[in-house]
């Protein structure tokens, strides 16, 4: 609060006093608290890495962990539905805005705000207490969802000037590592960690020197972190071998797809038929329209762009995806591959109008300009 008051002392004389001074101070204080927590987490991670590098043969148990995962479990109150658990924990613990949570779940912001308000009311009605988890595996599914959304928002920011929020994605990976230490035999925990490691391994190639986005098929793969890719694929292979008799979950399936991308020397040599099979399996597991949209891209690589466009058009016709920006951007990509330049330009521009991310908007408009000559 002292730092918030200091910020007000510096900013209000020039920018003017806000209408709701209390709300301004509360927001400023909360943001500084989140920055402090993230900074402390990163410091502890550096210290842990230093100890492990300095004393590689020492007992790993001497490296103490914090209570971050326990805090996530506590916030996933047992009186709430899974969707409410995730939304409240993302807002209260992870520090995501209501708009960011809404973007992750393809929901209107008002719907998510109402869901969070109802969750708080439900907790108050239950006595305002937070029952401790029964064990490391208790409330695991909502905790994994929270970590996944944190990483997704950190890896690709849904709004603002930056293409990513490295602090948020790094924190999500750190939390997944803690979960894996606690639950080494949980396949979906290993799958989520492997998925994030495989995705994060491409970070250096995702943007150019000016911060502009570079699509996967145009990235310099020599910049990918091959050590991280190898560690992640080993982790995934071990987890899938342990659970060979059980069907894989959504995080393990997505990790397998990411591994096929990361291990391929180029887009042309990628095992697209296998990726298509995995996306079909993911659709059956999650019933998520985004999986269908991604499957359309894989179908285009295997059966041609017209096959992918048919899937996209069917999804749009069923009103199965409320995120028009993603729909338009995928359709634009497939139209470009089909050689339908004018239609692709229109779709790229339509997607650019709907995004709140400036790097994404600039990328979409650049694609349209390139097609337009």
Task: Describe this protein's structure.
By secondary structure, the chain is mainly alpha-helical. The chain has a domain at 291-373: Serine Threonine Protein Phosphatase 5, Tetratricopeptide repeat. Helices cover 68% and strands 1% of the residues. The chain is built from 17 helices and 2 strands. The protein has helices spanning 2-15, 21-54, 68-75, 82-92, 98-104, 109-125, 140-155, 166-182, 187-200, 226-242, 250-263, 272-286, 289-303, 305-317, 324-337, 341-354, 358-371, and strands at residues 159-160, 356-357. It has a two-stranded parallel sheet with strand order 1-2. The longest helix has 34 residues, at 21-54. The protein is globular and about 60 Å long. Residues 58-65 have low confidence and may be disordered.
Task: Name the average pLDDT.
Answer: 89
Radius of gyration using CA atoms only:
22 Å
Helix content: 55-70%
Sheet with the most strands, sense and barrel status: 2 strands, parallel
Strand content: under 5%
Give the helix tally: 17
The dominant shape is: globular
CATH topology of the domain at 291-373: Serine Threonine Protein Phosphatase 5, Tetratricopeptide repeat
Low-confidence stretches: 58-65
Please give the CATH architecture of the domain at 291-373. Answer: Alpha Horseshoe
Number of strands: 2
Terminus-to-terminus distance: 53 Å
Strand line-up of the largest beta sheet: 1-2
- State the order of secondary-structure elements, H for helix, E for strand: HHHHHHHEHHHHHHHHHEH
**What class do helices, strands and sheet pairing give?**
mainly alpha
């Amino acid at each position: 609060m002292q730092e918030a008051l200091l910020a007000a002392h510096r900013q209000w004389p020039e920018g003017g006093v806000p209408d709701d001074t209390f709300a301004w101070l509360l927001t400023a204080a909360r943001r500084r608290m989140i920055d402090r927590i993230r900074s402390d987490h990163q410091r502890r991670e550096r210290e842990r890495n230093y100890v492990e590098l300095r004393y590689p043969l020492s007992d790993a148990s001497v490296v103490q962990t914090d209570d971050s995962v326990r805090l996530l479990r506590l916030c996933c109150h047992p009186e709430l539905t899974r969707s409410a658990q995730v939304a409240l924990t993302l807002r209260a613990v992870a520090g995501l805005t209501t708009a960011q949570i809404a973007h992750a779940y393809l929901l209107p912001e008002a719907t998510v705000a109402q869901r969070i308000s109802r969750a708080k009311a439900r907790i108050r009605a239950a006595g305002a207490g937070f029952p401790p988890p029964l064990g490391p595996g208790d409330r695991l599914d909502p905790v994994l969802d929270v970590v996944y959304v944190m990483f997704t928002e950190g890896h690709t920011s849904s709004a603002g000037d930056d293409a990513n929020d490295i602090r948020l994605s790094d924190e999500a990976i750190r939390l997944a590592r803690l979960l894996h230490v606690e639950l080494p035999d949980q396949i979906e925990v290993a799958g989520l960690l492997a998925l994030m490691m495989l995705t994060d391994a491409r970070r250096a190639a995702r943007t150019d020197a000016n911060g502009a986005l570079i699509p996967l098929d145009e990235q310099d793969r020599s910049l990918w972190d091959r050590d991280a890719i190898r560690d992640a694929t080993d982790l995934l292979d071990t987890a899938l071998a342990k659970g060979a008799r059980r069907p894989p979950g959504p995080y393990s399936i997505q990790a397998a797809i990411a591994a096929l991308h990361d291990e391929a020397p180029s887009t042309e040599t990628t095992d697209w038929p296998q990726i298509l099979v995995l996306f079909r399996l993911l659709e059956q597991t999650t019933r998520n329209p985004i999986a269908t949209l991604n499957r359309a891209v894989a179908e285009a690589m295997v059966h041609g762009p017209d096959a992918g466009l048919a899937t996209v058009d069917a999804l749009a016709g069923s009103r199965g995806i409320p995120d028009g920006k993603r729909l338009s951007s995928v359709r634009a990509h497939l139209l470009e591959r089909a050689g339908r330049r004018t239609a692709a330009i229109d779709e790229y521009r339509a997607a650019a109008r709907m995004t709140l991310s400036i790097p994404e908007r600039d990328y979409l408009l650049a694609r349209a300009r390139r097609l337009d000559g």
